[in-house]
Amino acid sequence: MIKKREKKWNVKCVSFDNPCADEISYELGISKKLATIVANRGYDTVEKARAFIGKSQEILHDPFLLNDMDRAVERIERAIKAKERITVYGDYDVDGVTSVSIIYLYLEKAGGIVDYYIPCRKGEGYGVSCEAIDKIKARGTGLIITVDTGVTAVEEAKYARSLGIDMVITDHHECTDELPNAVAVINPKRRDTSYPFPHLAGVGVAFKLLCALDKQLNNCELIDAVRNVANGYSDLTAIGTIADVMPVVDENRILISHGLSRAEKTDKIGLAALIANCRNGEGKAINKAKQKKKLSSGFIGFTLAPRINAAGRISSASIAVNMFLAKDAAVANDYSLQLCEINRERQATENRIADEAYEYVEKNGLAENSAIVLHDNGWHHGVIGIVASKVTERYGVPSILISFEGNDDENDGEAIGKGSGRSISGMNLVNALNSCADLLEKFGGHELAAGLSIKRKNLEKFKRRMNEYAKSCFDGSEPENTLDIECELEPSDISLNFAEELCILEPYGVSNPTPVFAMRNAIVSDITPVGMNRHLKLSISKDGYTFTAMLFSTTPKEFALSVGDEVDFAFNLDVNEFNGVANAQICLKDIRPSERNTHFERVNEELYKSVKNGEADLGHNYIVPTREDFALVYNHLLNSARMGKESYRYSRLLTEIVKQSRSSAINYVKLKYIIKVFRELNIVTIEELDELTFAYHIAFTKNKTSLDKSSILKKLKSMYPKK
């Protein structure tokens, strides 16, 4: 049984009671509920709310405010006119693939001689390398344009220059003190920058380069150049920005909003094929697709992006690039189907590694660590970043997974492992890795996601220091796994109209998250495993209403609740379309025993503790269980185990036994002592998950164990004798 760190709910308001909401609702013609959400996000006047919803507060900044932009434009224009070969050098993730694609497509249309190069994740690894530059030189390239990479390629830029190759570097990753000696280094995070927005994705920086280049090549006003580039390439720019989890504020909000609209009617037949295959079923892309709801950032982030990403993780990123560049519909569709197949392989690999990671954490007691660092010789390094995200989500702490794939010799201290990490608010992962720089071969990334290389001999020391650093970030206390909740809803608040109205807040992402709501004191009325037992579909009832709710990435074994439990749950509200019928859909973010029920559990737990300490003024018959009580509990556990049950809350087990036996002889105190005795005598294998919950396993045996051997039961009887 996996121990998940409980999430702390941060509820912004219990009901729709923001004092600004009435005026916003009236003036903008939106519901009070939506107006409350808008106000809670800081847009608490009519003017601010109107600007937020209308996206009129954001502007696209002048690309020439980026350092070296003029130099980059001049060099690229010269290469185009001279018919000099240009190689676009990118990363293998979605951001890199979309960046490569928009630069390639634009330069090709402008008459440039252009090709692209993306390193192989397994053979070459991340970033610019001298070996890759040699290959590019052999093609006859005179200019390399890097996208989503290159800002730390100091030695590589020097090497390229020695071969007579110029470099224009565009990147958005953190900069070091020394920049590469290139024709241009364009990065909104340069320490000497005056650019007003540092949070562009790599594809966002590439987009800005195209805007500046278009102005120069067409000798037009900047606004016309931006319009030209946006109409041609904002679809891929939006996909890369969403996939790289950039804040959806400032110009990113405009790029994503415009890009999602353009993607609906994209002229890129490869993108259209992938969207159609995802929406309508694989293999149906070249048929007329049934119209679905408009594209959302959620569809991009959770459906489209993983397929594009899978190419670089499992196979070759060139499959995704070639799909975007394809001119033939059948060829484009074939590439999109390849991505879908590769993604299925990625999912299977990811699920296996995740299961292994969870098991290792549980067996080795790492769930309480301030940071979790795991390694393995057989993990595919292409998916460990995704699994690190799952580990961080499950346990609420920063995590790093390291793969020594291809290096099975545990005694080879020089073997290089590649790692990928994810962090949480409160710990900058790049800063954490920098504190361990002497142990690493290289590292880089963002505040919440980063990669690294490390020698095996430094692994154990690295694990210790990462935990020490994490503890210092959280002042020695456990990191809080928080969940921000907009407000609490009642059943009557949930409707298709409200779910559809929430789309006004799109696009969602960092700094403008998908709204999370909460409902309290509902009853679980049904639990159905789906997706080969990896997900659950629940029926939840309250006040005469029944809702279907999806709980993803939770297996029946991991789910500690039962039918009939009273629960509080947190959720997203979305629109689900099936067979042409739209319904409001609940996607669970967290579900747990109701706070009201937990209060009664705590009261009973305190009573048990007072009995244990001999402080309770209660009689023998109330406290000491009989043999019949033991038999009743054992048989119930036995029957539940045969049905696949592996864990219980004491309160839930008590409710089931009382209901089934129609007897009030068993109470919480007796039940807890019975479980303790079962554990002591090894009648049932018990693992206490916390003081209110336990996991169990019954090994079927013909041998009988005498309860008289229990020292726990003897002590209890001596403390509370019969009178």
- How would the global form be characterised? globular
Query: Any idea of the CATH topology of the largest domain?
Result: inorganic pyrophosphatase (n-terminal core)
Count every beta strand, where a strand is a DSSP E run of 2 or more residues: 20
Rg measurement, Å:
29 Å
Distance between the amino and carboxyl termini: 42 Å
Number of helices: 24
For the record, the CATH class of the largest domain is: Alpha Beta
Q: Overall pLDDT, averaged?
A: 90
What share of residues is helical? 40-55%
Q: What structural class do helix, strand and pairing data support? A: alpha/beta
Topology, element by element:
Layout: E1 8-13, H1 21-28, H2 32-40, H3 46-54, H4 69-81, E2 85-90, H5 94-109, E3 113-117, H6 130-138, E4 143-147, H7 154-162, E5 166-170, E6 184-186, H8 202-218, H9 222-243, H10 250-264, H11 269-280, H12 297-314, H13 318-325, H14 329-363, E7 372-376, H15 384-395, E8 399-403, E9 416-422, H16 429-434, E10 440-445, E11 449-455, H17 459-473, E12 482-488, H18 496-501, E13 517-530, E14 535-542, E15 545-551, E16 566-578, E17 581-593, H19 595-612, H20 620-623, H21 627-642, E18 647-649, H22 650-661, H23 668-680, E19 685-690, E20 693-697, H24 711-719
Parallel strand pairs: 1-12, 2-3, 2-4, 4-5, 5-6, 7-8, 12-13, 15-17
Antiparallel strand pairs: 8-9, 9-11, 10-11, 13-14, 13-16, 14-15, 16-17, 18-20, 19-20
Helix pairs in contact: 1-2, 4-8, 5-8, 5-9, 5-13, 8-9, 9-10, 9-12, 11-14, 12-14, 13-14, 14-15
